[in-house]
Amino acid sequence: MFAPVLRWWPAAFALALAVPANAQGVWRAYQFSDSEEFQYDLKQTVDTSVTTGSYRLSISPAGAGQMRLDIQGKLAGVACSGSATVESGAASPYQLSTGCQMLAPVLLGAFMPMSTWFMGRPLVPGDTWNVGPQGESVSFSVNGSCTHAGQDGHRVEVRHNNEVRLKACLAPDIGLPLAVFWTEDGDDPIEIELVGYQP
């Protein structure tokens, strides 16, 4: 499910880097404060089987320019947990599944495309842009407003050859998406939704 998306990353990443770093109202993926908590509901569909779960990320100061990630998750009734100390301000998508590798396909499927397709770009409703690798069309749009867990964001969408691949809600001042619906070539979808947030 995830391999085909890799071919779009170089072009999309270059497109994102073309935006000035000091642009206003941009979504800065994986940029965190030293004190935040995220709680998500997860949903994964495989064929006609639906699996639900949860994911919680707590971030706290760890001293000397570092922060601590505490992670708890559950999927199909199986619980997991883990922790990691990273440099203050940012964490990689892989670190966000520390101790919960069973959640990695869901979390990476939801978080990884976001980091390249929308990072650093102003989220202005009505804006659209396109790339067309190998004669195909990948279009991006910012479509309006959305709210999850009391946090306001912008609705964004990605289409491949006019088929919806990604629908998400992004808030410029929050380093993870508020919600994501992601599918590749009509395959089994992944959905996440922020249900609790503490700055």
Secondary structure layout:
Elements: H1 9-17, E1 36-46, E2 49-63, E3 66-75, E4 78-87, H2 104-117, E5 128-131, E6 138-148, E7 151-160, E8 163-170, E9 179-182, E10 190-198
Antiparallel strand pairs: 1-2, 1-10, 2-3, 3-4, 5-6, 6-7, 7-8, 8-9, 9-10
Structure characterization notes:
Helices cover 12% and strands 46% of the residues. The protein is built from 2 helices and 10 strands, in the order H-E-E-E-E-H-E-E-E-E-E-E. It has a 10-stranded antiparallel beta sheet, with helices on one face. The protein is globular.
The 3D shape can be described as globular
Q: Could you tell me the number of beta strands? A: 10
Helix-residue proportion: 10-25%
Across the major sheet, the strand order is: 4-3-2-1-10-9-8-7-6-5
The poorly predicted ranges are 1-19
What Rg, in angstroms, do the CA atoms define?
A: 16 Å
The percentage of residues in β strands lies in over 45%
- For the termini, the CA-CA separation is 33 Å
Q: What structural category do the secondary elements indicate?
A: mainly beta
Provide the descriptors you would attach to this structure in a database record.
mainly beta; 10-stranded antiparallel β-sheet; 199 residues; 10 strands
Task: Give a concise summary.
The chain is mainly beta and 199 residues long.
